[in-house]
Amino acid sequence: MALAEEPVATASPQVSYYRDVRPIVQANCQGCHQPAKRGGDYSMIDHAHLLASGESGSAAIVPGKPTESYLIELITPVDGQAEMPQGKAPLSETDRQTIARWIEQGAQDDTPKSAQATYDAEHPPTYVRPPVLTSVAFSPDGETLAVSGFHEVILQKADGSGMQGRLVGLSQRIESTAFSPDGKQLAVAGGSPGRLGELQMWNVGDQQLAYSIPVSYDSVYGVSWSPDGKLVAIGCSDNSVRGYEAATGKQVFFNGAHDDWALDTVFSKDGSHLVSVGRDMAVKLYEVKTQRFVDNVTSITPGALKGGINAVARYPGEDQVLIGGADGIPKLYRLFREKARKIGDDFNKIKDFPEMPGRIYDVALTTDAKIAVACSSLDGAGFVHVFDVASGTKLRELEGPFQAIYSLSLSPDNKQIASVGFDGQIFLHDLETGKKIGQFAAVPVSPHTASTN
Length: 453
What we know:
Elements: H1 17-28, E1 33-34, E2 37-38, H2 47-50, H3 70-75, H4 93-104, E3 136-138, E4 144-148, E5 150-157, E6 163-179, E7 185-192, E8 196-203, E9 208-214, E10 220-225, E11 231-236, E12 241-245, E13 251-255, E14 262-267, E15 273-278, E16 283-287, E17 292-296, E18 309-314, E19 320-325, E20 331-334, E21 349-352, E22 359-365, E23 371-378, E24 381-388, E25 394-397, E26 402-403, E27 405-410, E28 416-421, E29 425-430, E30 436-441, H5 447-452
Helix pairs in contact: 1-4
């Protein structure tokens, strides 16, 4: 009789820090443990920081010894609760086992050299050439411009006379910035494409990060504030729209009605409703309190709209929105339907403005709602047009030439337009005449390095 063979022992598969462990930490821990906000005096931004000790003095990770690693104790639930992630559900059993096996196998670092650079307030990014700028926002007092950079938001004096601060965070790309109605906080939407989406909340006065919220696994967009300053909303590349309590960062709104990325958001005049636009050629309306999808503001007839919608701005004092997107035509819509929907109708549309060259990337309205502004780009050239809202006619085009323009902001006194785009410059124009009154670099560029690159 043949003897049964003894089973062959197999070693546990090798766990990768960069591929397996880092995404777990990134999604669950880095919001509170990063250079800009070191909870417990402990950063988890990279392998070196992860192996260090926090304020407890205990070794967070002891390579080869998971039972002696304080991190394992913190993430292990007792009676269904774990100390970390703080205020969240415990990590899944699979994630905890992945981290434990990685430590048991020696907690090796396999981070590619290209991904090893980290930035903080003491070590901000350096630029060898001007970066592409995707966001600009005036502060409510008109004194400051918040401009997107690489891993940071740059606070520039609005007259171009100097830099006021650099808000350095995790996200490689900053997609959208918005000051709170009182100007005390700055909400930032961005991320690291294909890896991390992030909502940042900064205190403007001391330039400190109040909190960071990881969101999905790709960049997030279109951050906006409710009129009372209590909520912020974002659009996400997982097709969802989300809302958060501004004071705490607690998620209080979620809806996945979009069929493609949600790219911009705005609240109704009383904050009871939320509007989003996206790559699915839709403008969607939600009730904030119930998180309920209410209506497609635009026509849902196939072919009625041409291409995605990138930007939305609310008409001041009214429940109407200005939108712009791939078809290059700014449009004004009412939010709430006054007639029953019929196949093929676009009843909520109030008017079209004259078509712009290429794709519209941003839109804005003056606080008195008399003037609408939009920026577009085509074949590397940028355009900013000014429209009369009442008549729907084009008043003027801002003095150029520009390279591609991706974002604009109107000063609170309705006298100036700031615009940014491909060439890394901030342009200031007079709204009434369209004449350029200023131009300056958004970020410092090393002259020596730039001359050789």
